[in-house]
């Protein structure tokens, strides 16, 4: 009677019932992989990021299906809204802004960027310095300390310099923090034959790739109440930068490829060893 009222064939009704009672093994597997990728991102990945992560696993699925499954599974990304940056024009006369927001570079070890942030580690703040290569936004050096001093930035720079094979002709860009303008840090740059560039005072857009790294770290990875100890923080930050961020987290700059993966692909296409 209901089929007659709605002008639906009875065969269509029984087909619908059979489909409702049949388990789709492919979709069950897809949901499991989707949930695993979401957990790996600690709840930060949106539909486009999850789509890219699934593609890396050779799983062919569309964006709208990923969004539907996210709704069904109640997977909600915790990405924050856009941040408003201050604008300023003041430069250090002796260390000009040579990069001048030219963030798209064509070769590895052409421009590195560095910055410092703070993280709660049990009972006090600790400090993290990171260096990235703008070529594919890959994290290449980092260091943690209980003091935000020049030794911290030098340690991160040393690690980057060693990890990248002691390159020459690099430009290093940072903000105007005292750690980067200190005599000891500038002497280390001179020893490595690295050219220095500095953002204009109070202008975070001049070093926005580094701001983006720290924003992602704090919103996607660091627990909302911080860590329990300095050692725990070091281990977790190391895993985020050197493993998840470099090798698994899709980056919009690289057409949704992880930085290290994109860099190796670009190097292979360019014949760079």
TrEMBL record:
<dbReference type="GO" id="GO:0015074">
    <property type="term" value="P:DNA integration"/>
</dbReference>
<dbReference type="InterPro" id="IPR048020">
    <property type="entry name" value="Transpos_IS3"/>
</dbReference>
<dbReference type="Pfam" id="PF00665">
    <property type="entry name" value="rve"/>
</dbReference>
<dbReference type="GO" id="GO:0003676">
    <property type="term" value="F:nucleic acid binding"/>
</dbReference>
<dbReference type="InterPro" id="IPR025948">
    <property type="entry name" value="HTH-like_dom"/>
</dbReference>
<dbReference type="InterPro" id="IPR036397">
    <property type="entry name" value="RNaseH_sf"/>
</dbReference>
<protein>
    <submittedName>
        <fullName>IS3 family transposase</fullName>
    </submittedName>
</protein>
<feature type="domain" description="Integrase catalytic">
    <location>
        <begin position="104"/>
        <end position="266"/>
    </location>
</feature>
<dbReference type="InterPro" id="IPR001584">
    <property type="entry name" value="Integrase_cat-core"/>
</dbReference>
<dbReference type="InterPro" id="IPR050900">
    <property type="entry name" value="Transposase_IS3/IS150/IS904"/>
</dbReference>
<dbReference type="InterPro" id="IPR012337">
    <property type="entry name" value="RNaseH-like_sf"/>
</dbReference>
<dbReference type="Pfam" id="PF13276">
    <property type="entry name" value="HTH_21"/>
</dbReference>
